[in-house]
Every structure is written in C-alpha cells, then in structure tokens.
Design goal:
The chain is of the alpha/beta class and 209 residues long. Helices cover 17% and strands 22% of the residues. Strand 5 and strand 6 form a beta hairpin. The chain is globular and about 50 Å long.
C-alpha cells in the first residue's frame, strides 16, 4: 500500500489515450511539464492522437495525480520509434516551467516565445543559473515537490520492482540512446532525446536517493 496520497480520479485518461496492455517495468523516467499545472498537461494529453502522456503528475503544491494504471503505458519518450523504452517504463511529469530566458532584470518562460513573466532576477531562489543545451536559466522545483518526489519514486520502484538506481553522474544529463536503451533504474527525458531539457539542471538527484 502506498504511504503517499495519490489522487486517482481527478485526471483520468480515456482508455484510448494509452496502451492497455500490461507489461513488465524496469525503468522510471522523469519529465517536467514546461508549464504551470496538471490541468494544462492533462488537457493536451486527453485528445492527443499520438497518445502522449505519463502515468503520474506531481504539481507545485506537492499533490500527486495518477492518469492511468502504471502497468499500462503511453508514449512519453520518442513515440513509436522507442516503443520498447515507452513500453518498459513508468513516467512522472513534474509541473515546472523549465527553461527560462533573461531580458534585463526579468526572467521569462515558455510559451508565447518566452514572453510569460516568471520572476525577477533578484529572486534567485526561484531559478537555477547553469547552462544546459542552449539555455542558461531553469525554473526551480518547489519545496513541496522536493518533499514528495522521494516518496513517489520509492512507491513506484517498490510497487513495480524497478531498480532504485541512478545513472552514473557523468551520464545524468547526457543523451545516449544506446546506453539508456539498456539501462534499468531511474533516468530522465534528456537521456533519450537531444532536443529535450527535462529533467534539467535545476533537479537534484539527491532528492530521490
């Protein structure tokens, strides 16, 4: 039984939006939404023709939502081109604005071509200043998310017998499809696609060990 609260009803994907075929899981993949809410992600997924989705969403206040049974799967990596990796994995989507752009003393997030005001540069606790794949600033995760992510990872890895193992430090931000197609344990979207920025440099893997 889970020791954390998971809402299984509020954001429930229609059956056609995931692959209803139970498969063995040996991989847990971390994502961020590049947006501000569970609702915005879910509303995109529920009608997506490519059946893009993740099983779990962790939002700013620490609430956790389940969108479909984790024994099933949807496409959250590179769609059908990496079917094996989608099929064998469970994914967590963490609400986070992701990459930011600085203009003067203000930081802006996607969407609207990075015109969405995020914070003032003086509010350093709200972002991380470290270069990664063409961006120098990334939105911080909330204290509530930091407190909950470890328990959620523990719940998933224990329930589905996924090794609670992190990639070597030198691989955590690396795109290496050969390495990660054979990896069992915990990984992130950036390991499977060179154009993706999640989980990004604002995430501290120590939160989940």
């Amino acid at each position: 039984m889970s020791l954390i609260a998971i809402d299984t009803t509020k954001f429930k994907l229609p059956e056609g939006q995931y692959v209803k075929e139970a498969t063995k899981k040996d991989l847990l993949v971390l994502h961020f939404t590049a947006g501000g809410s569970a609702a915005s992600a879910f509303n995109t997924w529920k009608n997506d023709k490519d059946r893009v989705a993740t099983a779990f969403i962790l939002v700013f206040d620490g609430s956790i939502y389940l969108t479909s049974a984790p024994k099933y799967d949807a496409f959250h990596l590179v769609f059908k081109r990496t079917w094996k990796n989608d099929q064998r994995s469970i994914a967590i989507e963490i609400a986070n604005f992701g990459p930011l752009k600085k203009d003067g003393e203000k930081l802006y997030s996607w969407p609207n071509n990075y015109k969405n005001f995020y914070c003032n540069a003086s509010e350093a606790y709200k972002y991380t200043n470290r270069s990664f794949r063409g961006f120098d600033y990334f939105a911080a995760f909330t204290e509530s998310q930091i407190k909950k992510i470890g328990g959620l990872v523990e719940h998933i890895t224990t329930t589905y017998n996924i090794p609670k193992v992190l990639p070597p430090v030198e691989y955590r931000e690396k795109y290496d499809p050969t390495y990660f197609s054979n990896w069992t344990g915990i990984a992130s979207h950036q390991n499977y696609r060179p154009d993706k920025l999640d989980i990004g440099p604002a995430f501290n893997f120590d939160w989940i060990v």
